[in-house]
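Thread: zinc ion complex, take 2
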Amino acid sequence: MTQSLDLRTREPALQALLAHHAPEGTTIELIDSVQQWAHERGLVENNPFRQAAAFPGRGCIVMCSVVTEDSARSSSSVLRIGPIAHEALAQDLWKDGRFLLLHEIAHLRGMLTEREADEWALARLNEHLVDEGEAPIDV
Ligand SMILES: [Zn+2]
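Output below.
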């Protein structure tokens, strides 16, 4: 059985990450589908599997409330952070959820390429892991 994590159970920690790293006033919404959320607001989102997105004009980040091992494994970030770090995220979905949020925060902070956003997100996640007494993810 594939693992899953409902991020609504971790919302206070997500809000803390947002307060620490995101531009002031940024909000987060945990939703069922990024594509559906975007379409309902007249925004373009072509990827039905999208797990998270930042909307700079609205100062908001939306994320699918549920992350799964499959969603973590299917992420294209494997191309940028490498297979070892990618697998570490798939095996610990709370790390994956925080990585996804930090990646979108990076976009709101002006990092426009996927590589920049992934590298910044992984570095910030590792700082938090070390602060919490956990081993950082190998990069
Ligand atoms: Zn991105």
